[in-house]
Amino acid sequence: MHVNDLPTPALIIDADVFGRNLAIMAEHHPGERLRPHVKAHKCTALAAAQQAIGHHTFTCATPLEVIGMAHAGVGTDLLLANETVSAERLRAMAALDVPVTVAVDSEATIVAARDAGIASCLIDVNVGLPRCGIAPDGAGQLADRARSAGLSVRGVMGYEGHLMMVADRAERLASVERSMQLLLQAHRDVGGDIVSAGGTGTFDLHDATGITELQAGSYALMDSHYGRQGLPFDQALYVIGTVISVSAEWAVADVGLKALGMDHGNPTVIDATVWFCSDEHITYQPAGGATVGDRVRVVPAHVDPTMAMHEAAWIVCDDEVVDRWAIDLRGW
Ligand SMILES: Cc1ncc(COP(=O)(O)O)c(C=O)c1O
Question: Does the beta carbon of 196 sit less than 6 angstroms from any atom of ligand 1?
């Protein structure tokens, strides 16, 4: 089937670009040096491709992602890089055949994990992003508490998400190094083999920071937000739409904000100026005119929420549809 025969809006992954992105990252961070974050794509078939290129440890943001990966038989070591106190979800993760490690940053998260039968944890350390994570100087004491509760403490994690978009590379590098000093300080008090951090925006800044693994996810498919950062990864993901109405100055296609993550701003249409998106429409000004029935490629500004809005992605090679991957890790 040709890509233009798909009903729209349709989520498309360019297989060649996707394959190149995986290869570039695997060369820089081979095997266990990368713990790919599945939150960026929520797709076990895509995770299987990451496993095929050498990565078999994975990062997840929700219990459902952990459980879905285990049921699909992808990954030998799954990290929930997030806090939960849900007894039901923790028990479901503890019952899986694959080893599961959860992030903890408080007494309550330790007790909930222990009571549900979870065996291992990482101490989540705040390295500057005002989100989860204990202050670095409290990490050692929390690790002692986790060990006395019966959990195996495998090390630390600290996500420097506030630094991913620092525009100047030298400034980004200096900030990442300062941020990782906090994580290493915590790690000296915590112990364990793992120091887990990083993302797509800082993937090449960790050669000397002392981390043992990188948690990047967006690199596989990319979005226009990361596309501005001058990274070596190319845009593999777009949403294809159909032009449904044209006026003298603008055209309208059937790709609205219910098909696109919009928290990082408007999507991009090549050779066109996007005016705005509403629920089921994108209104844009095409450079060369448009006709009802034309197809248009819309590049999302944020990959993660875009993936979470679609049931499936179509895998395309030279505009021919070669596969359909279920986005099967959606939900919590
Ligand atoms: C805990 C954690 N680690 C790593 C990442 C890296 O993701 P990305 O590759 O999109 O930068 C994220 C993204 O939000 C995250 O929340």
Answer: no
